[in-house]
Design goal:
Largest sheet: 3 strands, antiparallel
Distance between the termini: 16 Å
Helix content: 40-55%
Strand content: 15-25%
Number of strands: 3
Radius of gyration: 14 Å
Order of helices and strands: HHEEE
Strand order of the largest sheet: 1-2-3
Shape: elongated
């Protein structure tokens, strides 16, 4: 089962800023960055328990996880 993906407004702004930055350096790199973001969010939506826990509740259950972007120094943090 794939879950719905919603970005926090600040995360959306960061993705857009990074995409523009990469595209300004190398033609097409911004698009590859967006593809990596989509792949990471698709992975998190499809297998939500597969990401590395980054924050836990008092009960020690994970409440936030992260997945790395392939080829870029970014992670997608999700709940």
């Amino acid at each position: 089962m794939t879950r719905d993906v919603r970005f926090h407004p600040l995360a959306t702004a960061e993705v857009v800023e990074a995409q523009l930055w990469y595209e300004d350096r190398v033609d097409g790199l911004g698009g590859r960055f967006l593809d990596a973001v989509r792949a990471a969010t698709d992975r998190a939506a499809r297998w939500p328990d597969a990401g590395t826990p980054t924050r836990r509740a008092d009960s020690d259950d994970p409440i936030e996880r992260k997945v790395a972007l392939a080829g870029f120094p970014y992670v997608v943090v999700y709940r």
